[in-house]
Amino acid sequence: MRHPLVPQEKVLYNLSMRLDAFLSKFAGFSRSQSRKLIKDRAVTLNGEVANDSSAAVDEGDMVVVNGMTVEAFGMIYIALNKPADYVCSREKAEGKSVFDLVETNFSAELSVAGRLDKDTTGLVLLSNDGKFIHEVISPRNLVEKEYLVETTDEITVEQVSTLSIGVFIGKNEFSKPVFIEVIDSSHLKIVLTEGRYHEVKRLVSAAGNNVRRLHRTRIGSYVLSSRLEPGEWDYLSDAEKKRITGT
Ligand code: URA
Predict the structure, then answer these.
(1) CA of 120 to the centre of ligand 1 (A)
(2) In the chain, which end has fewer C-beta atoms inside a 10 angstrom radius, N or C?
(3) Is 117 assigned a catalytic role?
(4) Are 173 and 199 in contact (CB under 8 A)?
(5) Is the CB of 124 under 6 A from ligand 1?
(6) Cβ distance 149 to 205 under 8 Å?
């Protein structure tokens, strides 16, 4: 799914860096490829052929490589509606990746803040801001993750009670949702502040049922927008980002 290029006002970088560093950061070339391009006179800086790899690029400067303008970008925060059958990793052998859905000049810079399993759908956050990612996934920060769960079997009172008081989901691994709500005989809402491997599936299975479908609807107090169809993504505004981490 393509998405319009980043609006310039959102991404202007407060930058001053060497031309070869600029090309590797924003155009994806290695440092040596960047130097070779400069040597081969393939790069212009503000309309003049650049011949010095160490030339300074400042905010507002225009860098063009082989006729293509290189766009600078800053901190990026994205919400994506993950479809089933996509993995949250870059491992080609694992199949289609959420990173393939974000086709931009900066997609190589992004990481996932809280992975979902291949068959899980819903809200995934992507960013190049390591501090933000840490804040979202660190259990210390108690950032809530809300899941809609469809079970294979009818939900019983005992299962709800087990989930409410918490249960061992593995050796020495105790998990207790911060909130649980029965929606109907086969649907539950579960809110966690941790993000352990297969945590919801292991919780439901330890309580005596199984997950048929799993969908993440919310992180912090940011709810996945109904405007985003599966596979679509959008930038988070400052206010939306604040709803996730509080900062
Ligand atoms: N818990 C799971 O079991 N799977 C997910 O994808 C997310 C939370």
Answers:
(1) 7
(2) C
(3) yes
(4) no
(5) no
(6) no
Identify whether the C-beta of residue 164 lies closer than 8 Å to the C-beta of residue 178.
no
Closest CA to 203 of 219, 215, 186, 191: 191
| DSSP labels, 103-114 | -STTGGG-EESS
Strands of 77-199, DSSP E: 77-82, 111-112, 121-127, 145-151, 167-170, 173-175, 179-184, 187-192
Closest by CA position to 115, among listed 93, 140, 91? 91
Distance 233 CA to ligand 1 centre (A): 20
- Which of these is catalytic: 100, 117, 129, 234? 117
CB-count burial class (<10 Å; 0-12, 13-18, 19+) for 176: middle
127-161 pLDDT, tens digit each: 999 999 999 999 999 999 999 999 999 999 999 99
Instruction: Report d(CA 102, CA 232) in Å as an integer.
Output: 9
Indicate which atom in ligand 1 lies nearest the CA of residue 201: 3
Q: How many CB atoms lie within 10 A of CB 122?
A: 23
Kindly report the pTM of this predicted structure.
Answer: 0.81
Q: What is the pLDDT of residues 76-112, one digit of tens each?
A: 999 999 999 999 999 888 999 999 999 877 788 899 9
Verify whether ligand 1 is closer than 6 Å to residue 146 (CB atom).
no
* Interstrand relation of 211-219 and 121-127 (parallel, antiparallel or unpaired): parallel
Pocket mutation for ligand 1, best pick of 201, 211, 224 (most atoms within 8 Å of C-beta):
201
Structural domains for the chain: 8-69 (3.10.290.10), 77-139+225-245 (3.30.70.580), 144-219 (3.30.70.1560)
Cα(189) to centroid(ligand 1), Å: 13
